[in-house]
Amino acid sequence: MGIFKKLGWYFKQEKKRYIIGVLALVATALVNLIPPRVIGILADLFDQGHLTGSAAWWWIGTLLTAGILQYLFRFAWRNMIWGGAAKLEKQLRSRLFWHFMQMDDTFFQRHRTGDLMAHATNDLNAVQNVAGAGILTFADSIITGGSTLIAMMIFVDWRLTLVAIIPLPLLAVAARRLGMKLHAAFSESQAAFSRLNDKTQESVSGIKVIKTFGQDKEDVADFNRIVDRTININKRVNRIDSLFDPVTSIIIGATYVIAIIYGGTLVNAGTITIGSLISFVAYVNALVWPMFAIGRLFNVIERGNASYDRVHELLQEKSEVVNKPHALTTLSHSNIDYALDSFTYPGSDKVTLQDIHFDLPEGHQLGIVGRVGAGKTTIIKLLLREFDHYDGVIKIGGRDIRDYTLEALHNAIGYVPQDNFLFSTDVRNNIRFSAYDKDQPAVEAAAKTSAIHDDILQFADQYDTLVGEKGVSLSGGQKQRLSIARAVITEPDILIMDDALSAVDAKTEEQILEGLQADRQDKTTIIVAQRLSSVMHADEILVVDDGRITERGTHDQLLADNGWYAEMWSEQQLTQSLERSDA
Amino acid sequence: MAAKNPYESAWNQHLPVKEQMKITGRLLSFARYYKKQFVGAIIMSFALAIINIWLPRVIQQFMNGALAKHNATTAVILGVGLVYALGTIVKALVQFCSNFFFSMGAERALEDVRRQLFTKLHTLGMRYFDLTPAGSVVSRVTNDTMTLGDFWNVFMSLLVGIFSIVTALVAMYVNNKTASWIVAAFIPVLLVATWFYNRYSSKVYRHMRSKLSELNAKLNESIEGVSIIQNFEQQKRVDREFEDVNNDYLDTRRAMIKTNSLLLSSFLNLVYVFALTAVLIHFGIMAQTAVVAAGTVYVFSTYIQSFFNPLGNLMDQLQFFQDGVVAGSRIFRILDNNELAPQQNPGANAVVREGKVEFRHVSFSYDGENEVLHDISFVVQPGETIGLVGHTGSGKSSIINVMMRFYEFYHGQILIDDRDIRDYPIEELRKKLGLVLQDSFLFYGDIAFNIRLFNDKITDDEVKKAAQFVQADSFIEKLPNTYHARVIEGGAQFSSGQRQLISFARTVAADPKILVLDEATANIDTETESLIQDGLRKLRQGRTTIAIAHRLSTIRDASQILVLDKGRIVEAGTHDELIAQKGKYYDMYRLQMGEKVEE
Fold first, then answer.
1. Membrane-crossing residues (chain B) (predicted)?
2. What is the ipTM of this complex?
3. Most buried of the four, A175, A416, A503, B197, by CB within 10 Å?
């Protein structure tokens, strides 16, 4: 029952709704007592024959009124209670969403997208079930169950009632036990479903490989094996699920048998009338659902509780990267003074970066190169404050970047990430993602700088073309160029391109770099690249290996140093020098 | 699962009734393979309807007979109890069988649809996969089929409803003709209510579902793009947008709740009370002149209930009808898709022996409108290498796509060993043509599986040899379980270079006669880089090779290099010849080597 307490804040917030809802439930339960009794009374009246007087008509009128009241009260509680559950789900979803938007990288490394989605859908569903079905069954089993029992004892016979309801608690037990079993079997069935899903996913993603090696028949056979296993697992689910109805029938049947034998004896002895027996049987019918509900209630509460705790735990997690009190909201200039002694990813014991020191005056260009996994992107992540805990100080504009608000820092930086994530809106809104107030000329200017304008004009709806599943499918190079446009549209003081040119060809790369050079004369640019031609014009180039700077200097200096950079360069040069000696 | 399915645009389309009927018919026909289960379930549910009518009758006769006369002996009372108990046990058995037969029939039938879909996918041409996001294809096979069980259940409920209405009516008719007519008069009311509910609720329901998928798509996208949102400081705007969708969804849900509270079970209960009242009035009039036995009143109150109850159940399930039709329309879009993979000539039986490849005036377009290859002609002699060079979109990949028979071409001819490519059975082509893709895809399983794939004829020894040949063994041997090391989804634990080496080994193990190479553009760490260059060279040994090169150095020694531009061959010759021409190739080469060098 702890979950009701945990959700107390919500019930308090929706006090009116739940009071009206529960009152309507009580009213429904009370009105529900009328029809069984009226039928019994009428049966007795009709059985005597030669009906005179208005008693029968009065009872029929009562029955009709009860029916109409039932309808009204039911409508009221359904609206109130189901509506309340829906609203709870919505509120929790809003909270989760806003929470996700505030969380740092560490959080998203710990929780994968699929898991977060599951929390926001399955868990919230389980919680809203408590506020809907939970409240309903709770109230129903107590109010309807209790009032029906009392009615049976008063209107019919207390002895018969006590004897006949003996089997009914079994209903609650059965509902609970079967529910638990079903849940366990269902989890397995879900796992089987995911296997099937994964298999399909993989075959679709790898369709070219499968076709290439002519293994479609084998792949289908493999799929069929998984399907066969799934059927076997689902057989168990179906078996348990099919047991609910018969078990209910048997338990109810048992109370009927008691009613027939003991009730029949009572009627025979003249203790109760046949009409009373009819009422009794109808009341037993009315008890079925509340009893069953008690059993289900445990399952609803158990699942809701676990889900609420999971959601609550998520909401309790704090971002490590937060604004200091009284943080600065503006940057005076954009000189970067990067003095990092060491950085280790949270939860890892391997030092990722060590002794990364560089100064980047406003208006200069920095190149960072090195092999995959050397730590280039991590240098950028720290600059963007995706992590705040490291040894050393990173300054922009002469102040520790942790002294600024995140907004101020981020607004000064235009960032082109390695994975060019685009949103499923149109091209225009993807480009002006950070500045919805920019007009078409500004959008086009950014697109031209990024050498994507001409491509966009080729799209069916040009700047209105939707990106992603529902619209155009973009090539890797087009995505990269759109991400560049998104970063340059605000003309940021600092532009960071993290391997943002890897999928564009050499000619386009040159075009983009020249465009940036022209547009960003007096602004700072950091280019992380694999291809050396991307950084050869930079004021300083850092070569990073295994988390350290191993070489640094201008292109010419680095060539003269004869290290990794020169080697990489000469590797490309090799063929040409051979060519030269051939000539 | 809805979360994984952000492409439910079908919810916004309204299918015409005719279309709905057609889809319904076809979906029902899927069930025919499991006739035994379904017919069994139907017979059982008919039996159940009869038992449901018979049990109250036992009580009625008991009441009207012995009880009314107050002369029931203990034996009679116990006897009636026993009969009722036995009836209940039979009822429970019948219920179980009916439920279980049906659910297993539905399960098997829907898994069948899954099998059909999956098999069909393998017959579709690459174009389908280019145009359809992988997630939506997967969702068709898994999520959409999932709804079919519920869909068939709608019809089962309909049958159950008809059974119980008919049996209840018959039982009432036997008891009291006029009263049974009175109840029957409510059938039109029910039909109208059901029709109205279906019409109204399906609209609300569709709206709700489409809002839900929009909501989940938005949520999913915002989580995946969270770092972008944060880096550009757009949290507030994105949150506002999410809040709008969230509110919209709540509104549709409220509308759904209201519709259901107005029209569903509470409404049926109201009609039940009306019908009961009408019958009681009739009995009241009768009772003025004669006796109406109490048992008869009892039995009518139960029969009227079993007349209405199944209908509530049916209405409750109507939404699954909508689900099923929408899912069905999407399923059939795949099953009816005739963008099939290219077909070979009937009776094709040629065998690739030498590995000579020739393109003769091949033109090709993906969509039938924009030609991406114009009049491509070239010859590669057995064992030689031809290099394809050009900017993105120049048509290099299209040459591979038609060569591999991923797409059908309609103009010109492709010849292997001087015979039309369509004269070879597809299995032969798959065996003799090896394609090495740019992004090496690894499957879930172990390393050995990824090298041999499903071809069990390749022994463990051959797997090892293939790996050694391309020098992939050096890193594989270091793995915990060497060749049986698990490969997780997409091979994420390996570097792109390592993945590439595994895919080389895969091609070596398959030992094709002709090699089609799409060199990786992705940058690979230097250590594996040299291994990969080595591997590529070894792969080409003794094989006719058609290579797309991004690093021109890779194909310097090719016997012929074609420079493509906008789908045409603009330059052709050896490396030295092309450099001497000082044309496009020369420019590209210079650019790649870096201008610095020529100073």
1. 38-55, 75-94, 151-173, 179-198, 262-283, 289-308
2. 0.83
3. A416
- Give the pLDDT band of residue B525 (cuts 50, 70, 90): low
Please compute the mean of the pLDDT values over residues B207-217 and round it to a whole number: 85
Neighbours of B481 (CB within 10 A): 11
Q: Bridge partners of B13? A: none
Q: Are residues B297 and B385 in the same domain?
A: no
Instruction: For residue B352, tell me if it sits in a domain.
Output: no
pLDDT digits (tens, 9 = 90+) for A95-151: 999 998 888 877 887 787 777 888 888 888 888 988 888 888 888 888 888 899 899
For residues B493 and B446, membership in a common domain is answered with yes
On whether both B263 and B315 belong to a single domain, the answer is yes
Inter-chain residue contact B103 with A218, CB threshold 8 Å: no
**Beta carbons of B330 and B144 less than 8 angstroms apart:** yes
pLDDT band at B5 (very low <50, low <70, confident <90, very high): very low
Query: Which regions in chain A score pLDDT beneath 70?
Result: 1, 50, 468-473, 571-583
Inter-residue contact A7 to A131 (CB < 8 Å): yes
Q: Do A260 and B454 touch (CB under 8 A)?
A: no
Residues B311, B418: one domain? no
**For the segment A170-228, what is each residue's pLDDT rounded down to a tens digit?**
888 888 888 888 888 888 888 888 888 888 888 887 888 888 887 888 888 889 999 99
Q: Which residues of A touch B222 (CB under 8 A)?
A: 97, 100-101
Interface test with A, best of B226, B234, B407 (most A CBs within 10 A): B226
Q: Specify the range with the lowest mean pLDDT, choosing from A375-379, B212-216, B239-243, B537-541.
A: B537-541
- Assess B577–A contact: CB distance below 8 Å, yes or no: no
Judge if B382 and B424 occupy the same domain: yes
Residues 422-481 of B with CB under 8 A from A: 426-427, 429-431, 433-435, 437, 441, 443-444, 453-455
How far apart are the C-alpha atoms of B229 and A480, rounded to whole Å?
Answer: 17
- Predicted pLDDT of residue B520: 60
Same domain, B322 and B365: no
Q: Is this model's pTM higher than 0.90 or not?
A: no
**Residue B593: predicted pLDDT:** 63
- Residue B46: which of B174, B165, B180, B171 has the closest Cα? B165
- Look up residue A402 and give its DSSP letter: G
Q: Are strands A336-344 and A351-360 parallel, antiparallel or unpaired?
A: antiparallel
- Closest by Cβ to A421, choosing from B224, B276, B592: B224
Average pLDDT over residues B187-212: 84
Q: By residue range, what is the domain housing residue B467? A: 357-598
How far, in Å, are A472, A534, B110, B392 from residue B325 at the CA level? 28, 54, 14, 42
Domain presence at residue B345? no
Is B341 a domain residue? no
> B412: phi > 0 → left, psi -120 to 50 → alpha, else beta; which?
left
What length does chain A have? 583
Amino acid, single-letter form, for residue B169: L
Distance from CA of A11 to the nearest CA of B (A): 18
Nearest beta carbon to residue A274 from set B67, B272, B392 = B67
Please report, for residues A529, B19, B584, B595, the alpha-carbon distance to residue B590 in angstroms, rounded to integers and kept in the order given.
20, 61, 10, 6
A 538-567 residues with CB < 8 A to B: 555
On whether both B406 and B479 belong to a single domain, the answer is yes
HEC-encoded secondary structure of A105-132: HHHHHHCCHHHHHHHHHHHHHHHHHHHH
Predicted confidence (pLDDT) at residue B598 exceeds the cutoff of 80: no
Taking contacts as CB-CB distances below 8 angstroms, the residues of chain A near B524 are: 372
State the smallest CA–CA distance between residue B562 and chain A in angstroms.
Answer: 18
Residue B162 forms part of a structural domain: yes
Q: What are phi and psi of A144, to 5 degrees?
A: -65, -45
